[in-house]
Amino acid sequence: MKSKIIILIGILIFIVACSNDDNFESKINGRFTGTFDRNGNISNVELNFENGTFSGSSEIIKFPAICSGKYNRIGFNKIEFINECPWTAEFDWSLILGGVWNYTFNENELTLIRYHSDNGLDNTEDKYILQKIIE
The organism sits in which domain of life (predicted)? Predict the structure, then answer.
């Protein structure tokens, strides 16, 4: 009897986890506009998400550096961006949209936050605040 209960609990956890992934994809798929902020320096940005891929642009060239690539949800509130574009060496590569970010959804608002603790960037916070464009 105990083994049946454990199996049932496992199945329920699996179902909830799968539905959360579907919910994540339905929330993130689409076009977002908003701002990027690094220590009070702000730029307008646009990001597009579609089934595991992203693309975007920034009002200020390479602040932040957004091009295109893939993304993966990692755990409950983390997302990893994999940049697929080549970049030149004349700017701060920590501005490239890549690596692991914390995220939150609030209605149609997506917030992405990353803190730097290496590359001499202690106490630096990068933050995207994005609104989903409903068309």
Answer: Bacteria
